[in-house]
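Case study 2.
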Amino acid sequence: MPDGANTMREELGEDHWATLDAQCELGRILMEQDRLSEAEKLISEALRNQHIKYSDAFGKTIVFIKALAVVRTRQGEYADANDLFTEALKDRKHQFDENHPHTLGILNDIGVLRREQKNYAGAEKLLRQALDGRRLKLGMDHPACFESMHELAILYKEQGDYNKAEPLLQEAVEGRRLKLGDTHPHTLKSINKLIALYEAWNKPEKANQWRAKLPLNQLKEQ
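Prediction:
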């Protein structure tokens, strides 16, 4: 673990709730860097220690379960991811309701899982539900809405429906640039996906226009 996390572990103990919270957050950061094995190890350990020490006294168990499910999705461990998401969704619906932002976040992530499983109809239904619910509950310009737009656009791109994908990705890019900044990882991810869309669509001029907006060290292989 990085120095800051090690310092917290030394000062508070490896199973202190704040240490576990920081450990899970570090796992999420590593996941965004595609360091999936490291992320899985940290989040799994945090979840295990959370169960042993606190049960769900701090309401963190489902947060850790959801994070682990996202990692498992990216690792291609779809059955494990589905089981974890099912547990998290059941808890969220029990605590809140189907239209609560916490529930909608899990529905969005399950939509991504369904997309990776090539269950496109199921993915579209869930991602649309998440996007519509987030717009209603959080507002049209909330970063969570741009996340759902991004994921739904990827779904349409994978299906070859570029006309549906383009406006969603453009809105996700512009929204993330405004809310998160030009160099935020989520903004750069959406720009890279827009470049990939135009390349798949045989529109190299538009792909190059967006590629020119990226720092050289941020240009990802499509």
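The chain has two domains: 1-88, 96-222.
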